[in-house]
Amino acid sequence: MNIHKTFLAAALAVTVGAIGPVSAQVVGSVAELDILDGGRTANGAYLGALRVTLQDGWKTYWRAPGDAGIPPQFDWKRSTNVGSVSITWPAPDVFDQNGLQSIGYENQMVLPVEISPKNPAKPVRLKGTVDLGVCKDVCIPERLGFDHTLNAEAERNPTIAAALAKRPYSAKEARVANARCHLTPTSDGMQIEARVTMPSAGGREIAVIEPGNPELWASQTDAKRQGGTLVATSEVINASGGPFALDRSKIRITVLGANHAVDILGCSAG
């Protein structure tokens, strides 16, 4: 079995176990998916969005969902004339589920996507599925299908614009002076201590560390301020239990604050 899928199955099992058994009262889909059109960009790419609308009080998860969630998984293989797909993730919210931290979106998730066509003169058809974990009093898996030919002549879409406006700041925009990662072997894997020198993102700052390798998993971070530096510690493990190396240039650190979020790609040794 694919290691990443093993992680997803394990995460869903842990989440369901933490929240309670799946209730027979959950009938039908609690989530609906539609594709939004945003026309074409100046560089010829198509701008669209995947919008997942959930029943009231339900939530789904960000790409790094925390200890009590599973990330969305996208299958675009049946699409036509798609060269590449770039997803923009709006800054998520942080939830507490019976003492476990999860990261995601409540009631609605809008993910802007920019699609570069293989042939700019031909239409782009998006066809595939999204696998989600959704939670309220219970947690259940959802598989949502989509089949939509993008409208090259569509006007600016305010829903897509609002989602893009919620993207995290870049390191430059957030005035990050430096980001360093100190790596220490542990009995199960590797500890990362990330030290990010930057102005406060506001209130309680939560840091999320992504190893940059889908075969690896990073635990919930312990983050604290030391003056102008945010110090975040996490442990990275390999599902197979084997040895692994970490490429600091691929480590991604997201800081979620009360005022804004910050997306930091790569860190130096230190």
From TrEMBL:
Residues 1-24 form the signal peptide. Pfam families: DsbD_N (PF11412). InterPro entries: DsbDN. Keywords: Signal. Residues 49-143 form the Thiol:disulfide interchange protein DsbD N-terminal domain. This is Disulphide bond corrector protein DsbC. It comes from Ruegeria faecimaris.
